[in-house]
Structure formats: C-alpha cells, structure tokens
Design brief:
This protein is 9% helix and 40% strand. The chain is mainly beta. Strands 4, 5, 6, 7, 8, 9 and 10 form a 7-stranded mixed sheet that branches.
Amino acid sequence: MDDTRQAIPLTVEIHQLPMLLGVSVATAVNCCGLLVPCRALPSVLARSVRPLVFENDDEYRYSMRGSCTLVRSDRAHVAVFTEHQRQGQAPAQIRIVSGFSGGNCLTAETYPEVDPRDGEEYEDLRGLKIAVTPHSREELADFYPLPNAELPPVQGSRMLIAIGLPAADSGVDYDPMNVRGGTIAMPCSYLEVSTHVRGFHSVQTKFVPGYENWPVDGMSGGAVFSIDGIPANYSSNLRGIVLRGGADRLHYIDIAARSRRCDSDRHL
C-alpha cells in the first residue's frame, strides 16, 4: 500500500456493555492510565486490533485474513497473529496500517520465531516486530501495553471482551480498490483453562438481543480483554490472543505471561 492510499476504514459495534456490567454508562474504567467511560471502552480497546492484510503478486493485489493485535512491552512493539492465517505467504507480504481509520503501513523489523518445544498451540502464535525509529508517537499510540506484573486470575474478571474483524463484515473490494474492516466487540464469559497447555483458555460469547449467533470466522489474531476490579476502581487488561473459535466459543493464549519469558529479538 503506498503512502497516498487511505487504507482500511474500520467501524466498531458496541453492545450494551454498561447494562451487562450492571453499572452506569458513565462509570469509568482505567485503560492504560486513562479513565474511559464504560460505554466508550470497546471503541478504545478496538484501536489495538487491525486487519491482517497481505500484498500479493497476482491480479488480486491484496487479501485479508482475519485480525492481528498490536502490543508493546519495554523491549518491543509487535503485531501478533497466528501462523494459520498466513497460509504459506511470506512475512514480507504483510501490510498493517498504522492508523485505526487508515494511513501508512507500519515498517516491519523482524519476524520472531516460536520455540516449538512449547507445544502445538504456541506454534500457531506469530508476531511481526515493528521498527520504532521511523514512526511517530501517534503511529505507535495504539499498541496496547503488556503488564510488567502478573494479572489477577482471569476467572475473577467482571467481564471479558473479544475484539476482532469477522470475515462476514470484512474483506477486499476491487472496483474500486478498498480494504473493508468491520471491527466487532463481543462480550464473553470465562469457561475454562486447559489442563494440557499452559496459558490456553476458552471463553463463551454472551447472548445479547439481536446477536444470538456471533460471527467468529476471522477472529483469529484478535484480542481478549478483561475488566477487573470493583465499580469504583475498574481497569482493563489484555488477556490474550485468539487462536481459533467455533460456534459460541473462542480459544486464546495468555500473551502477557508469554511475553515475560520471551526474548523479543528471537522468540515470541
């Protein structure tokens, strides 16, 4: 995508979050140090999720394959997604737009590997390390910070929110050329943690009138956030990256715990 192209306009759907939490629409949530009204929280969290787009060599110049999540630690800025989304295409073909409503593409630096000894679920996790130097503070503002300390158990969270770009609402148009990204926020409840794979969790999408069947195709690479604490002291946290889903369930890997034991230059 060249510098003049306005890429990937996104929209966010907000689904009765204050009602689901049982709080006022004005109840504030601490999100990365900022107090955000509860009704606006999905819009703010969604800024850290982007469509995963590939530039091709054939007549169909671009293809879109689900979601990716922008995260940062003290060591690196990384766009995280899954291996099965690549479908054999090279990391150099990945295009991730810098702004939530469009803009230039982020400049990639390295493609960290995953240690295969961690198991097949972790082998599906991938990331593109983003170069910091050529980008402005505004272009890097949407990377969600990973916690330095251990989070409270996810089982006790007040609410879980999965954010991604379902295939039903996203894609590539060719006449005229346009990448459509329809971001959606799904309220979820916690189901279980795997007894075989460390940090592998399952959630269930919540029933909301008008959304009996949530679209999960395309959610791979998206994010699962939590709302933790009590009404006077709510905070949001990134819990993990969606690996796959089906019916009314999504399965994610705890990315925060993983980041604390990884070498950001070589392994994810």
